[in-house]
Amino acid sequence: MVSSDTPPPDSNASGLGCGGIVWSALAAVLLLTGLTAVAVLAVRAFGALVAALGASALIAIGLNFAQWYFLKRLKRVDRYSLFRLGHRWRAWRGKGFDIEELARRCGLTAHRLQNHQPSYHTATIPKPSGGERTLTIPDPATMDLQRTLLRRVLARLHADPAACGFERGKGIVDHAAPHVGRAVVATCDLKDFFPSVTAKSIDYYFRRVGWNAEAAALLTRLTTSEGGLPQGAPTSPRLSNLLMHGVDYALAKAAGRRGFRYTRYADDLAFSSAEDDGQAVRDLLRRVEAVVRRGGFELNSKKTRVLRRHQRQMICGLVVNDRLNLPRKIRRELRAALHRRRVGREATYTAQQLAGWAGVLTMVARGPRAFHGETPPDSAPSSA
Q1: How many other CB atoms are found less than 10 A from the CB of residue 25?
Q2: Which residues are listed as membrane-spanning (predicted)?
Q3: pLDDT tens figures, 98-141
Q4: Residue 284 structural domain
Protein backbone atom coordinates (compact mmCIF):
# COMPACT_ATOMS: atom_id res chain seq x y z
CA MET A 1 0.00 0.00 0.00
CA VAL A 2 1.40 3.38 -0.99
CA SER A 3 1.64 6.00 1.75
CA SER A 4 -0.29 9.19 1.27
CA ASP A 5 2.88 11.17 2.09
CA THR A 6 4.70 9.92 -1.00
CA PRO A 7 4.83 12.68 -3.68
CA PRO A 8 3.64 11.93 -7.19
CA PRO A 9 6.34 11.01 -9.70
CA ASP A 10 7.96 13.97 -11.55
CA SER A 11 7.95 13.56 -15.30
CA ASN A 12 11.20 15.66 -15.57
CA ALA A 13 13.12 13.88 -12.81
CA SER A 14 14.81 11.43 -15.16
CA GLY A 15 15.39 13.79 -18.12
CA LEU A 16 15.04 17.29 -19.50
CA GLY A 17 12.16 16.59 -21.82
CA CYS A 18 11.92 17.53 -25.45
CA GLY A 19 11.67 21.27 -24.83
CA GLY A 20 14.72 21.34 -22.55
CA ILE A 21 16.84 19.42 -25.01
CA VAL A 22 15.93 21.77 -27.86
CA TRP A 23 16.73 24.89 -25.85
CA SER A 24 20.05 23.44 -24.64
CA ALA A 25 21.09 22.53 -28.18
CA LEU A 26 20.14 26.00 -29.43
CA ALA A 27 22.18 27.65 -26.66
CA ALA A 28 25.21 25.49 -27.50
CA VAL A 29 24.96 26.42 -31.20
CA LEU A 30 24.72 30.13 -30.36
CA LEU A 31 27.70 29.88 -27.99
CA LEU A 32 29.86 28.13 -30.58
CA THR A 33 28.83 30.66 -33.22
CA GLY A 34 29.72 33.54 -30.92
CA LEU A 35 33.09 32.05 -29.99
CA THR A 36 33.88 31.44 -33.65
CA ALA A 37 33.04 35.04 -34.50
CA VAL A 38 35.22 36.33 -31.66
CA ALA A 39 38.09 34.09 -32.77
CA VAL A 40 37.79 35.32 -36.37
CA LEU A 41 37.83 38.94 -35.19
CA ALA A 42 40.85 38.27 -32.97
CA VAL A 43 42.78 36.68 -35.85
CA ARG A 44 41.93 39.59 -38.14
CA ALA A 45 42.95 42.11 -35.48
CA PHE A 46 46.23 40.29 -34.86
CA GLY A 47 46.94 40.22 -38.60
CA ALA A 48 46.31 43.94 -38.84
CA LEU A 49 48.61 44.54 -35.85
CA VAL A 50 51.38 42.47 -37.41
CA ALA A 51 51.01 44.38 -40.66
CA ALA A 52 51.16 47.70 -38.83
CA LEU A 53 54.01 47.03 -36.37
CA GLY A 54 55.94 44.12 -37.78
CA ALA A 55 56.69 40.76 -36.21
CA SER A 56 59.91 41.94 -34.54
CA ALA A 57 58.14 44.74 -32.72
CA LEU A 58 55.42 42.40 -31.48
CA ILE A 59 57.98 39.90 -30.23
CA ALA A 60 59.85 42.69 -28.45
CA ILE A 61 56.57 43.81 -26.84
CA GLY A 62 55.91 40.24 -25.77
CA LEU A 63 59.39 39.90 -24.27
CA ASN A 64 59.01 43.16 -22.37
CA PHE A 65 55.62 42.03 -21.06
CA ALA A 66 57.15 38.71 -19.97
CA GLN A 67 59.93 40.62 -18.22
CA TRP A 68 57.39 42.78 -16.37
CA TYR A 69 55.25 39.78 -15.44
CA PHE A 70 58.10 37.68 -14.08
CA LEU A 71 59.76 40.52 -12.19
CA LYS A 72 56.52 41.77 -10.63
CA ARG A 73 54.61 38.54 -10.09
CA LEU A 74 57.09 35.71 -9.63
CA LYS A 75 59.29 36.62 -6.71
CA ARG A 76 61.50 33.55 -6.99
CA VAL A 77 62.59 34.17 -10.57
CA ASP A 78 66.29 34.98 -10.97
CA ARG A 79 66.12 38.63 -12.00
CA TYR A 80 69.59 38.55 -13.49
CA SER A 81 68.55 35.78 -15.89
CA LEU A 82 65.69 37.99 -17.12
CA PHE A 83 67.85 41.10 -17.31
CA ARG A 84 66.63 43.50 -19.99
CA LEU A 85 64.98 40.99 -22.32
CA GLY A 86 63.99 43.65 -24.82
CA HIS A 87 67.60 44.77 -25.21
CA ARG A 88 68.69 41.16 -25.67
CA TRP A 89 66.23 40.68 -28.51
CA ARG A 90 67.32 43.85 -30.28
CA ALA A 91 70.98 42.89 -29.90
CA TRP A 92 70.46 39.37 -31.24
CA ARG A 93 68.50 40.79 -34.18
CA GLY A 94 71.24 43.32 -34.90
CA LYS A 95 68.86 46.17 -34.01
CA GLY A 96 70.70 47.39 -30.91
CA PHE A 97 72.41 50.73 -30.37
CA ASP A 98 74.99 51.35 -33.08
CA ILE A 99 78.35 53.08 -33.31
CA GLU A 100 76.70 56.37 -34.26
CA GLU A 101 74.75 56.26 -30.99
CA LEU A 102 77.95 55.48 -29.10
CA ALA A 103 79.69 58.45 -30.73
CA ARG A 104 76.75 60.71 -29.89
CA ARG A 105 76.84 59.71 -26.23
CA CYS A 106 80.59 60.28 -26.04
CA GLY A 107 80.46 63.62 -27.86
CA LEU A 108 82.88 62.32 -30.49
CA THR A 109 82.73 61.30 -34.13
CA ALA A 110 82.24 57.69 -35.17
CA HIS A 111 85.37 58.01 -37.33
CA ARG A 112 87.52 58.94 -34.32
CA LEU A 113 86.16 56.07 -32.23
CA GLN A 114 86.67 53.48 -34.94
CA ASN A 115 90.18 54.63 -35.83
CA HIS A 116 91.54 54.97 -32.32
CA GLN A 117 94.24 52.39 -31.56
CA PRO A 118 94.80 51.96 -27.81
CA SER A 119 98.34 51.42 -26.58
CA TYR A 120 99.56 50.49 -23.10
CA HIS A 121 102.74 50.35 -21.07
CA THR A 122 103.45 48.36 -17.94
CA ALA A 123 104.60 49.57 -14.54
CA THR A 124 105.12 47.85 -11.22
CA ILE A 125 104.12 49.04 -7.76
CA PRO A 126 104.79 47.39 -4.38
CA LYS A 127 101.98 45.36 -2.84
CA PRO A 128 101.03 46.16 0.77
CA SER A 129 101.50 42.48 1.63
CA GLY A 130 104.86 42.23 -0.13
CA GLY A 131 105.91 41.60 -3.70
CA GLU A 132 104.98 43.69 -6.70
CA ARG A 133 101.83 44.35 -8.70
CA THR A 134 102.03 44.90 -12.46
CA LEU A 135 99.83 47.63 -13.89
CA THR A 136 98.88 47.97 -17.55
CA ILE A 137 98.49 51.71 -18.06
CA PRO A 138 96.91 53.22 -21.21
CA ASP A 139 98.47 56.08 -23.15
CA PRO A 140 97.07 59.58 -22.43
CA ALA A 141 94.69 59.63 -25.42
CA THR A 142 93.30 56.20 -24.54
CA MET A 143 93.04 57.23 -20.88
CA ASP A 144 90.92 60.27 -21.82
CA LEU A 145 88.71 58.19 -24.11
CA GLN A 146 88.18 55.53 -21.45
CA ARG A 147 87.25 58.19 -18.90
CA THR A 148 84.65 59.46 -21.36
CA LEU A 149 83.27 55.94 -21.81
CA LEU A 150 83.17 55.56 -18.04
CA ARG A 151 81.13 58.76 -17.58
CA ARG A 152 78.87 58.54 -20.62
CA VAL A 153 78.26 54.79 -21.02
CA LEU A 154 79.30 52.64 -18.06
CA ALA A 155 78.01 54.97 -15.34
CA ARG A 156 74.44 54.44 -16.61
CA LEU A 157 74.58 50.69 -15.97
CA HIS A 158 73.91 49.04 -12.63
CA ALA A 159 76.10 46.69 -10.61
CA ASP A 160 74.75 44.41 -7.90
CA PRO A 161 74.13 46.13 -4.52
CA ALA A 162 76.69 43.80 -2.92
CA ALA A 163 79.50 45.50 -4.89
CA CYS A 164 81.10 48.18 -2.69
CA GLY A 165 84.39 48.90 -4.44
CA PHE A 166 84.67 51.56 -7.16
CA GLU A 167 80.96 52.40 -6.88
CA ARG A 168 79.82 55.98 -6.38
CA GLY A 169 78.98 56.63 -2.73
CA LYS A 170 80.46 53.33 -1.52
CA GLY A 171 83.79 52.11 -0.22
CA ILE A 172 85.56 49.87 2.28
CA VAL A 173 83.41 51.16 5.14
CA ASP A 174 80.25 50.01 3.34
CA HIS A 175 81.99 46.70 2.63
CA ALA A 176 82.93 46.08 6.27
CA ALA A 177 80.06 47.69 8.22
CA PRO A 178 77.39 44.99 7.57
CA HIS A 179 79.66 42.44 9.27
CA VAL A 180 80.24 44.29 12.56
CA GLY A 181 79.44 42.29 15.71
CA ARG A 182 78.72 39.00 13.95
CA ALA A 183 79.44 35.57 15.42
CA VAL A 184 81.47 34.36 12.45
CA VAL A 185 83.12 36.19 9.53
CA ALA A 186 84.44 34.43 6.41
CA THR A 187 86.60 36.22 3.84
CA CYS A 188 87.69 34.96 0.41
CA ASP A 189 89.90 36.36 -2.33
CA LEU A 190 89.52 36.04 -6.10
CA LYS A 191 92.71 35.04 -7.90
CA ASP A 192 93.86 37.23 -10.85
CA PHE A 193 90.63 39.22 -10.72
CA PHE A 194 91.01 41.67 -13.63
CA PRO A 195 92.71 39.23 -16.07
CA SER A 196 89.90 36.73 -15.39
CA VAL A 197 87.38 39.14 -16.94
CA THR A 198 87.82 38.17 -20.59
CA ALA A 199 87.20 40.20 -23.73
CA LYS A 200 84.67 37.58 -24.85
CA SER A 201 82.57 38.05 -21.71
CA ILE A 202 82.77 41.84 -22.05
CA ASP A 203 81.60 41.70 -25.67
CA TYR A 204 78.69 39.47 -24.63
CA TYR A 205 77.80 41.87 -21.82
CA PHE A 206 77.66 44.88 -24.14
CA ARG A 207 75.39 42.96 -26.53
CA ARG A 208 73.16 41.92 -23.65
CA VAL A 209 72.60 45.50 -22.51
CA GLY A 210 71.55 46.64 -25.97
CA TRP A 211 74.54 47.42 -28.22
CA ASN A 212 74.66 45.78 -31.62
CA ALA A 213 77.53 43.54 -32.71
CA GLU A 214 79.67 46.30 -34.24
CA ALA A 215 79.29 48.69 -31.30
CA ALA A 216 79.89 45.91 -28.75
CA ALA A 217 83.07 44.85 -30.55
CA LEU A 218 84.31 48.46 -30.62
CA LEU A 219 83.57 49.00 -26.92
CA THR A 220 85.39 45.77 -26.12
CA ARG A 221 88.44 46.77 -28.17
CA LEU A 222 88.62 50.18 -26.48
CA THR A 223 88.46 48.77 -22.94
CA THR A 224 90.53 45.55 -23.07
CA SER A 225 94.16 44.61 -23.58
CA GLU A 226 95.50 41.18 -24.53
CA GLY A 227 92.09 39.56 -24.11
CA GLY A 228 91.32 40.87 -20.62
CA LEU A 229 90.82 43.93 -18.45
CA PRO A 230 93.99 46.02 -18.08
CA GLN A 231 94.71 46.71 -14.42
CA GLY A 232 95.38 50.42 -14.67
CA ALA A 233 92.64 51.51 -17.09
CA PRO A 234 89.92 53.76 -15.59
CA THR A 235 87.16 51.60 -17.10
CA SER A 236 88.39 48.30 -15.65
CA PRO A 237 87.05 48.59 -12.07
CA ARG A 238 83.58 49.57 -13.26
CA LEU A 239 83.49 46.85 -15.93
CA SER A 240 84.60 44.24 -13.40
CA ASN A 241 81.65 45.17 -11.16
CA LEU A 242 79.21 45.03 -14.07
CA LEU A 243 80.52 41.66 -15.24
CA MET A 244 80.32 40.34 -11.66
CA HIS A 245 76.59 41.14 -11.44
CA GLY A 246 75.49 37.56 -11.92
CA VAL A 247 78.13 36.16 -9.54
CA ASP A 248 77.27 38.75 -6.88
CA TYR A 249 73.57 37.98 -7.20
CA ALA A 250 74.13 34.24 -6.88
CA LEU A 251 76.49 34.66 -3.91
CA ALA A 252 74.08 37.00 -2.10
CA LYS A 253 71.27 34.53 -2.71
CA ALA A 254 73.33 31.57 -1.46
CA ALA A 255 74.43 33.54 1.61
CA GLY A 256 70.91 34.71 2.43
CA ARG A 257 69.51 31.20 2.29
CA ARG A 258 72.03 30.14 4.93
CA GLY A 259 71.58 33.17 7.20
CA PHE A 260 74.71 35.03 6.03
CA ARG A 261 75.33 38.55 4.77
CA TYR A 262 77.51 39.16 1.70
CA THR A 263 79.48 42.12 0.35
CA ARG A 264 82.36 42.47 -2.11
CA TYR A 265 85.13 45.04 -2.50
CA ALA A 266 86.96 44.38 -5.79
CA ASP A 267 88.38 40.87 -5.38
CA ASP A 268 87.67 40.61 -1.62
CA LEU A 269 84.52 38.67 -0.67
CA ALA A 270 83.08 38.90 2.86
CA PHE A 271 80.38 36.79 4.52
CA SER A 272 79.09 36.89 8.09
CA SER A 273 76.44 35.24 10.24
CA ALA A 274 74.90 35.88 13.64
CA GLU A 275 75.12 32.14 14.37
CA ASP A 276 78.40 30.23 14.63
CA ASP A 277 77.35 27.10 12.76
CA GLY A 278 80.41 25.27 11.46
CA GLN A 279 78.44 23.09 9.07
CA ALA A 280 76.69 26.13 7.58
CA VAL A 281 80.06 27.83 7.06
CA ARG A 282 81.53 24.80 5.29
CA ASP A 283 78.40 24.43 3.15
CA LEU A 284 78.52 28.11 2.20
CA LEU A 285 82.20 28.02 1.25
CA ARG A 286 81.61 25.01 -1.00
CA ARG A 287 78.75 26.85 -2.67
CA VAL A 288 80.86 30.01 -3.03
CA GLU A 289 83.61 28.07 -4.79
CA ALA A 290 81.10 26.53 -7.20
CA VAL A 291 79.45 29.88 -8.03
CA VAL A 292 82.79 31.62 -8.51
CA ARG A 293 84.10 28.86 -10.78
CA ARG A 294 80.90 28.91 -12.85
CA GLY A 295 81.35 32.66 -13.31
CA GLY A 296 84.83 32.17 -14.79
CA PHE A 297 86.82 33.08 -11.66
CA GLU A 298 88.90 31.15 -9.14
CA LEU A 299 89.28 31.47 -5.38
CA ASN A 300 92.71 31.93 -3.85
CA SER A 301 92.36 29.18 -1.26
CA LYS A 302 95.42 30.39 0.67
CA LYS A 303 93.59 33.61 1.56
CA THR A 304 90.29 32.11 2.74
CA ARG A 305 89.72 32.93 6.42
CA VAL A 306 87.00 31.95 8.92
CA LEU A 307 87.10 34.14 12.04
CA ARG A 308 85.08 33.74 15.26
CA ARG A 309 84.25 36.25 18.01
CA HIS A 310 87.30 35.37 20.10
CA GLN A 311 89.57 36.18 17.15
CA ARG A 312 90.32 39.54 15.56
CA GLN A 313 87.84 39.74 12.69
CA MET A 314 89.25 41.90 9.88
CA ILE A 315 87.80 42.90 6.51
CA CYS A 316 89.94 44.95 4.11
CA GLY A 317 92.17 46.09 6.97
CA LEU A 318 89.28 47.16 9.23
CA VAL A 319 88.42 45.45 12.52
CA VAL A 320 84.72 44.49 12.78
CA ASN A 321 84.49 42.60 16.09
CA ASP A 322 82.48 45.08 18.18
CA ARG A 323 82.69 48.27 16.14
CA LEU A 324 84.37 49.46 12.99
CA ASN A 325 87.96 50.53 13.61
CA LEU A 326 91.53 50.37 12.39
CA PRO A 327 93.79 47.76 14.03
CA ARG A 328 95.46 48.97 17.22
CA LYS A 329 98.93 48.45 15.74
CA ILE A 330 98.21 50.74 12.79
CA ARG A 331 96.70 53.40 15.05
CA ARG A 332 99.83 53.30 17.22
CA GLU A 333 102.11 53.53 14.18
CA LEU A 334 100.12 56.46 12.80
CA ARG A 335 100.49 58.36 16.06
CA ALA A 336 104.24 57.67 16.07
CA ALA A 337 104.58 58.79 12.44
CA LEU A 338 102.69 62.02 13.13
CA HIS A 339 104.92 62.72 16.11
CA ARG A 340 108.05 62.14 14.02
CA ARG A 341 106.83 64.59 11.40
CA ARG A 342 105.96 67.22 14.00
CA VAL A 343 109.44 67.14 15.55
CA GLY A 344 111.12 67.13 12.13
CA ARG A 345 112.37 63.56 12.18
CA GLU A 346 112.15 61.18 9.23
CA ALA A 347 109.00 59.04 9.24
CA THR A 348 108.18 55.85 7.40
CA TYR A 349 104.89 57.34 6.20
CA THR A 350 104.79 59.80 3.33
CA ALA A 351 102.50 62.81 3.51
CA GLN A 352 100.21 61.14 0.96
CA GLN A 353 99.98 57.96 3.05
CA LEU A 354 99.19 59.95 6.19
CA ALA A 355 96.48 61.86 4.34
CA GLY A 356 95.05 58.59 3.06
CA TRP A 357 94.90 57.00 6.49
CA ALA A 358 93.40 60.18 7.93
CA GLY A 359 90.68 59.91 5.30
CA VAL A 360 90.00 56.30 6.28
CA LEU A 361 89.70 57.30 9.95
CA THR A 362 87.25 60.05 9.00
CA MET A 363 85.12 57.66 6.97
CA VAL A 364 85.12 55.09 9.76
CA ALA A 365 83.89 57.77 12.15
CA ARG A 366 81.13 58.83 9.76
CA GLY A 367 79.96 55.30 9.06
CA PRO A 368 78.79 53.54 5.87
CA ARG A 369 78.30 55.29 2.52
CA ALA A 370 80.76 58.03 3.37
CA PHE A 371 83.77 56.58 1.56
CA HIS A 372 83.15 57.68 -2.00
CA GLY A 373 84.83 54.93 -3.96
CA GLU A 374 88.45 56.03 -3.51
CA THR A 375 91.16 53.39 -3.48
CA PRO A 376 92.20 52.69 0.12
CA PRO A 377 95.71 53.76 1.05
CA ASP A 378 98.58 51.31 1.23
CA SER A 379 98.81 49.28 4.39
CA ALA A 380 101.08 50.49 7.13
CA PRO A 381 104.63 49.23 7.37
CA SER A 382 105.62 46.91 10.16
CA SER A 383 107.21 49.68 12.22
CA ALA A 384 107.08 53.45 12.41
Answers
A1: 10
A2: 20-43, 50-71
A3: 999 999 999 999 999 999 999 999 998 876 555 778 899 999 99
A4: 82-325
